[in-house]
Automatic annotation (TrEMBL):
Entry keyword Signal: yes
Organism, as annotated: Salinimicrobium catena
Coiled-coil blocks: none
Secretion signal, residue range per the UniProt entry: 1-20
UniProt entry tagged with the keyword Nuclease: no
Name of the featured protein: Lipocalin-like domain-containing protein
InterPro entries on file: Lipocalin-like
Source taxon at top rank: Bacteria
Pfam families registered for this protein in UniProt: Lipocalin_4
Amino acid sequence: MKKILILLMMTALVGFTSCSDDDEEGERVLGTWILQSVEPNTLFDPQECANNSTVRVEGDNTLTANFYFQQNNCDLTSGEGTWQKTGASSYSFDFPEVGEVSGTATFPSKDRMIFTSEEGIVFTFQRQL
C-alpha cells in the first residue's frame, strides 16, 4: 500500500511539473521583441533600416508588429495580428503584412528568442527592456 501511495504522489508531481513547464514556456514568448536578424537575409535584413522592427506579444493571443522593410524605403508598416502556442515549443504567428508563420521557438536566454519557421527561415529576437 505504501508503494502505491508513493507511486501516486510521484505521478502527481510529474504531472504538475509538466504543466508548469508548458505554461512557463508559453509565457516566455510574451513581451516586446526586437528583430535582430533573419536568415537567409535575402528575404529581409533588419539591419538595413535605422529603426528597430519590433513585435509585442500579448497574453490574450494578440500581437502588434512594427516593421521597417528596406523594400518599403524603411517606412513603418504596423498592424495587429494573432499568435498561438501549438505544441511544446511550437508557435504560429500571424503577422500583419507578412502572414502566418509557424515553427519552433528556442530561448537560449531569458532575453533572446530564436524562431525557426517550418520553411527553415531563422528569426532572431532580443527582448526589449
